[in-house]
Design goal:
With 79 residues, the protein is mostly beta strands. The chain has no helices and 4 strands. It has one domain. 0% of the residues lie in helices and 20% in strands. The protein binds FE2/S2 (inorganic) cluster (FES).
Amino acid sequence: MDLPKIAGKAPIMFDAQKDKNYAWCTCGLSENQPFCNGAHKGTDFVPQICKETEDKKVALCTCKLTSNAPYCDGSHKAC
Ligand code: FES
């Protein structure tokens, strides 16, 4: 599998709603970061479907190097 494209070097804050799915882009090709827009088609990547158990603000990874997807873990600092 190819490496994902680095879509950004800082997380994007998102107000997640309890029990509402969102599709986090894993390939880095989406122009609607940090969410999937279908640009992964033709690659080996698929979006990661995520859901929070409560309303909360989350920091979503855009560099795609996090070890705690979909959340930022600071890996962008090494980009
Ligand atoms: S556009 Fe990146 S996973 Fe869908």
